[in-house]
Write a structure and sequence with these properties.
By secondary structure, the chain is α/β, with parallel strands linked by helices. 29% of the residues lie in helices and 30% in strands. It contains seven helices and twelve strands.
């Protein structure tokens, strides 16, 4: 029987034990820039995977697409093929008032506000990042002089829901095209901020949950690309400091290459 995975078509030997994950397929090439012996091993739907070597360590770069369902598909198939360390490099909205655009946030744990991870295990199960990866990411950011914080990330399914806000006149405003927005959407943002949650994005919850269930290591470092609530498209910068985030992620994977 073929060992090709049903969605990506990947086979054993095509992916490395250590994988850098991103959402955008176009970012795979950027992550793998400077690697040796790079080969693209998958280009299916939102999934693009390249494998090579960086400073003597075998690495893969793989895109998950947007959100938890596609992330879960890729994580399942990577783990089945022997990948044991998964590090997400992505974008996020900043919740903490003192975060600036371009700052990095290293996720220590995630608020599981997605639906996919709850299909695997109840919400009480914690989504926790691997402690060695967290420490290595913070150390790498310090060495490179990159502004970086570590803390809890809010991981949710709907990009635009996180942009609901109560205006000074008491009306509910949002950047979404939807007509229905309950006040609980805006109150949820305030509650997360008051609880000390640093940032929000759409993949860390399911990634860290599945890593715990599957017995592999996972982490997440994200650039603050916009503010939550979102002031508008002019305030969204998906590229600012991304090269620094990628470099920090590489450093962390190399630093933990021999960790148990």
């Amino acid at each position: 029987m073929s060992d090709a995975q049903p969605i990506t078509g990947l086979r054993r030997g095509q992916v490395a034990e250590r994988v850098l994950l991103c959402g955008d397929p176009a970012r795979v090439e950027r992550i793998a820039r400077g690697w040796e012996d790079v080969r693209e091993v998958c280009r299916v739907r939102e999934f693009r995977v390249a494998t090579g070597r960086f400073r003597g360590v075998a690495l893969s770069a793989a895109s998950t697409g947007i959100g938890a369902p596609s992330t879960a598909v890729l994580v399942e198939e990577l783990v089945k093929l022997g990948s044991h360390t998964l590090l997400r490099v992505g974008n996020s909205g900043g919740l903490a008032p003192d975060l600036a655009l371009g700052d990095l946030v290293v996720t220590t744990g995630a608020v599981r506000d997605d639906g996919t991870s709850k299909s695997y295990v109840p919400a009480e199960y914690p989504a926790v990042a691997d402690h060695a990866l967290v420490g290595a990411l913070l150390a790498a950011a310090r060495t490179r002089g990159v502004r970086c914080r570590a803390g809890v990330t809010w991981s949710l399914d709907a990009f635009y829901v996180r942009n609901a806000v109560v205006a000074p006149d008491g009306s509910l405003a949002t950047m979404s095209a939807g007509r229905y927005w309950g006040r609980e959407h805006a109150e949820r943002i305030v509650a997360m901020r008051d609880a000390g949650v640093l940032n929000c994005e759409m993949e860390s919850g399911v990634l860290l949950t599945l890593a715990g269930l599957f017995g592999v290591r996972a982490g997440c470092v994200c650039v603050v690309s916009d503010r939550t609530p979102w002031p508008g498209p002019a305030e969204l910068d998906l590229d600012r400091n991304m090269d620094a985030a990628i470099a920090v992620a590489h450093d962390a994977l190399l630093a933990t290459a021999d960790a148990p």
